[in-house]
User: Fold this.
Amino acid sequence: MDMQKNLTISILGKSYSLSTDENADLVFQAAQKVDKMLRDKIDKVGKAISEEKLAVIVALELATELAKQNEALASFEQKALDLDSLLDQEL
Assistant:
């Protein structure tokens, strides 16, 4: 297990300190992705929507993206199991 690290990330110009045992590079990449997604939304809709609502929208987009990836992974895992079963039958 990784050691706890104290990191400071920046999203929309605001700094957030956090303690995590996750890979620091991955945390920074995730923060950059969230920052970019929020900035893209602000560019698209302007300041008419609060940052809080934009954060919820981005969180839902990320959760949907994760769900799609999990679904694709499950499909590939099932295909691998099916192929393994076919190989066992043939041998």
